[in-house]
Design goal:
The chain has 19 helices and 6 strands. With 489 residues, it is mostly helical. It has 3 domains: 123 residues, 2-Layer Sandwich (Potassium Channel Kv1.1, Chain A); 144 residues, Four Helix Bundle (Hemerythrin (Met), subunit A) (Up-down Bundle); 121 residues, Helix Hairpins. The strands form 2 sheets. It has a 4-stranded mixed beta sheet. Strands 5-6 form a two-stranded antiparallel ribbon. Strand 1 and strand 2 form a beta hairpin. It is flat, with a radius of gyration of 34 Å. The protein starts with 17 loop residues before the first helix and ends in a 37-residue tail after the last helix. InterPro entries: Ion_trans_dom (IPR005821), K_chnl_volt-dep_Kv (IPR003968), K_chnl_volt-dep_Kv5/Kv9 (IPR003971), KCNF1-like_BTB_POZ (IPR048010), SKP1/BTB/POZ_sf (IPR011333), T1-type_BTB (IPR003131), VG_K_chnl (IPR028325), Volt_channel_dom_sf (IPR027359). It is found in: Cell membrane.
Length: 489
């Protein structure tokens, strides 16, 4: 490929020697033959192709340090690399930037760039985004595999308290670790449901009792059930806090803050009931207790700890802040415009229900969201026309951002399933390699691997020989450059 002399390409140094300009380099990458000229390659002297220009004078040792094979008759360098990735990488010599072709694994492409000694700064920003996403996926897989291996391993050097603390943490936080842990998770789920049902049933007047002062209060039986549920939640939280490896991170976690908010109102109400009457008026104490009891609704969010679907919904909404913001902005603009128009058009009617523009906001909200309570409605012809346009615009405004939000949910849900499958595949691969020659002791081998991983990467030297399509380079100390026959599917 002769590209020299084209005005689109970067200028070369004026002091380049004539010999360097006329140097012809023949490269065979995975069966694809390419011809380069020295004036193009010399623009980036640190790259592997540029080093081929002067390697012939260094003998065969210098040649074979750069390539896999060399034909002195054809003066042709052979590389057992991915030719598709190579075709993208050589663009840097002509255009000063690299675009990754669709269908190439970003991690494999990064390894190819490192092999050809091309800096990642030449990779276009759109391709760097794909690379960063792939890195995050591999880091997540590595983290999941590490957690599973940590659960399998038992370090004999740890104290009895540390081992007990680790067992309690696994018992309460990881239902998949054992059958008793699953039973505890189901019990916790049932206590959450029971406490939520009790909170709702306790507000039914027929089930309430009247105290000595004539005030209605919850039935003592329901109060006892709630006390038992709070006792379970308190014991569960305290045990998880004591066994937590990182107590500060545990205390600041969102779900653990929800747990505290679900437990705290009970104890604050109990304290105010028994001690507050001595410090303030009884009516003020009752108002404070009633306000705190409303906070019991926070316990319903504890279901997210035991529901992967709710967790996926939460993460999807976090990633959809932009779309949700657009939705609120569309509705806010429509509400302001149509409420002002509705107020103006309805002023001519003597029995108008639109007393002011702020009061018309309520009508605009229920109209654009197609709820339509009917407590406020237009009576003039222009007002009805304005109402028809407003709910049509409301349907369009709500429908536009919904599709991206749904896509975010489906993408994140599928990604979590893929990561979970990939982590299981890595564990099966590790077990398969560790069982070679010792088929009867696969579990003990994994435990040994987990113990070896305490101080460094948790892939042992025996496992580093594995090169699967999902091999995680992040878990190994060594650099593994794949050949074109080992490229990612």
């Amino acid at each position: 490929i002769k590209m020299a002399g084209d005005s689109r390409f970067p200028d070369v140094d004026t002091d380049r020697s004539e010999k360097n300009e006329e140097t012809e380099i023949v490269v065979n990458v995975g069966g694809v033959r390419q011809v380069f000229y020295g004036d193009n390659l010399s623009q980036y002297p640190e790259t592997r192709l540029a080093e081929l220009i002067n390697c012939l004078s260094g003998g065969y040792d210098s040649i074979f340090s750069l390539c896999d094979d060399y034909d002195p008759g054809k003066r042709e360098f052979y590389f057992d690399r991915d030719p598709d990735a190579f075709k993208c990488i050589i663009d840097v010599y002509y255009f000063g930037e690299i675009h990754m072709k669709k269908g190439i694994c970003p991690i494999c492409f990064k390894n190819e760039m490192e092999f050809w000694k091309v800096d990642l700064k030449f990779l276009d920003d759109c391709c760097k985004t794909h690379l960063s996403e792939k890195k995050e996926e591999l880091e997540e897989i590595a983290r999941r595999v590490q957690l599973i291996l940590d659960d399998l391993g038992v370090d004999a050097s740890e104290s009895r308290w540390k081992r007990c603390q680790k067992y309690i943490w696994k018992f309460l936080e990881k239902p998949e670790s054992s059958y008793p842990a699953r039973v505890i998770a189901v019990l916790s789920f049932l206590f959450i449901l029971i406490s939520s049902v009790v909170m709702c049933v306790g507000t039914i007047p027929d089930l309430q009792v009247v105290d000595a002062e004539g005030n209605r209060m919850e039935h003592p039986t329901l109060d006892s059930i709630e006390t038992a549920c709070i006792g379970w939640f308190t014991m569960e939280y305290v045990l998880r806090l004591i066994s937590s490896p990182n107590k500060l991170h545990f205390a600041l976690s969102f779900m653990n803050i929800v747990d505290v908010l679900a437990i705290l109102p009970f104890y604050v109400s109990l304290t105010l009931t028994h001690l507050g009457a001595k410090l303030m008026e009884l009516s003020n104490v009752q108002q404070a207790v009633q306000a705190l009891r409303i906070m019991r609704i926070a316990r319903i969010f504890k279901l997210a700890r035991h529901s992967s679907g709710l967790q996926t919904l939460t993460y999807a909404l976090k990633r959809s802040f932009k779309e949700l913001g657009l939705l609120l902005m569309y509705l806010a603009v429509g509400i302001f415009v149509f409420s002002a128009l509705g107020y103006t058009m309805e002023q001519s009617h003597p029995e108008t229900l639109f007393k002011s523009i702020p009061q018309s906001f309520w009508w605009a909200i229920i109209t654009m969201t197609t709820v339509g309570y009917g407590d406020i409605y237009p009576k003039t012809t222009l007002g009805k026309l304005n109402a028809a346009i407003s709910f049509l615009c409301g349907v369009i405004a709500i429908a536009l951002p919904i599709h991206p939000i749904i896509n975010n949910f489906v993408r994140y849900y599928n990604k979590q399933r893929v990561l979970e499958t990939a982590a299981k595949h890595e564990l099966e691969l590790m077990e398969l390699n560790s069982a070679e020659g010792k088929s009867t002791s696969s579990k003990s081998e994994l435990e040994d691997l987990a113990r070896q991983g305490k101080e460094g990467p948790f892939y042992s030297s025996r496992l580093k020989v594995s090169h699967s399509d999902t091999f995680i380079h992040l878990l190994s100390e060594e650099k593994h450059y794949r050949t074109r026959l080992q490229s990612c599917k």
